[in-house]
Amino acid sequence: MFRRHGAAVLSSDAVVHDLYAEDARVRGAVAERFGTTDRARIAELVFTDPGELAWLEQLLHPLVRERYAAWLEQVETPVAVVEIPLLYETGADALFDAVVVITAPAELRESRRGGSVAERSSRLIPDMEKVDRADFSYVNDGSLGDLDAFVQAVLQRLRTDSESDA
Fewer CB atoms inside 10 A, N or C side of the chain? Predict the structure, then answer.
């Protein structure tokens, strides 16, 4: 967890990293299934085999949700943000008061990642559907300053909404 712009922020990717590093059940199950706990090697295996990916997600997603719930119970800020790459794909959007979707054109995502994102992106809900379902959306094809201004505006709106609900 970290704080940014006065909001508490939790990253799903960080939670998964912690589960791999700290949860003996996860490490044991993953090592037994894949013969390794090396995340890069596991990614190679699961992103080429939908069955293996489904197995891994069935192991991790409930544990990640438990961490969200525990974290949200202890957060003492008006706005708490949970970053979830597979929000809609896992049905986790129902757990939150508001959803912010940040997208970028595929070419830009590839240039930022340093390679093709098609392999991992092919199973995702299309960006336009995510944007249509979101409370807030932003196309991240500008500067970090532009993105920061969008985030500031959303956080201000959420804080205002939170204050009016109190």
Answer: C
